[in-house]
Amino acid sequence: MQYRYCGRSGVQLPMLSLGLWHNFGSVDSYDTACAMILRAFDAGICHFDLANNYGPEPGSAEKNFGKILRDHLQSHRDELFITTKAGHAMWAGVYGEGSSRKNLIASCDQSLRRMGLEYVDVFYSHRYDGITPIEETMQALVDIVRSGKALYAGISKYPPELQEQCYSYLAAHDVPCLLSQYPANMFKRGSIAHTENSNLAIAARNGSGFVCFSPLAQGLLTPKYLHGIPENSRAARATGFLKLEQVTEERIWAAQQLSKIAEERGQTLPQMALAWLLTDSRVTSVIIGASSVAQLEDNLQTLNRLDFCDEELARIDCVLDKQGLAM
Fold this sequence. Notes:
It contains ten helices and ten strands. It has 327 residues and is of the alpha/beta class. It has one domain: NADP-dependent oxidoreductase domain (TIM Barrel). The protein has an eight-stranded parallel β-barrel with strand order 3-4-5-6-7-8-9-10, surrounded by five helices. A two-stranded antiparallel sheet has the order 1-2.
């Protein structure tokens, strides 16, 4: 495994981290989840990314992860970097979601109980709710860190116009933002573009590490959708984050062209998509998801070929410059 520093800090993360958004909940195979986490750890993935509402059911990913820690990794806590978040709908009632101090502190306490931990390494505000003052949310993060329930603070999915306020408040209170987490992939280049107001540029300017999630565009950058929408895929389900209308002819065409470039490089399309994100040294880590150990192994092979020649990057840009690719 290869590691990178988080912004202007002494903390390193693996270039590939394991996210527990999908496939680790109460509806999934516990044995498979356990096998994936242990294989990831053996491969040098020490960063495991969760949120209080990951499941389904909400909270069950943290419960399963906590059981795996107790049964298999308890003696390795100091080798692990565990992150969790709060902000999306988690429990019934008016306090069960949002960016308020009430929600964040209660959520942090609940997450620690579910995982059986004394602290997490990073506690994130998972989103800006559009209502709570930035000062209230950031002060809650400051107090969570000072209480010892988290070692560092992080933000995720905050609009660019508010990110500077977050970074400034946290820095002024001696709890600088260690990590910023945003969706980034070949079909969502704006988040990591070399422009002054991209999420990555703002984070780097403020000394924050940057973690990419949804690097495969919810499966669009895998072989699954190269020939349309298969049955039982995420896009075919009535519920889920990938919608039918996102699987456009333009994206299918682009994935097909990118797959050809990947094959010429001796990689799978997912491997190339992950490697492409890591070409920017400001990206600290890319969060991968997996539904099996075999899929995890395939993603790990990304690290065998991270280099791109200028011609390959130009060909990729040409494909991505086609219309209809914004996600």
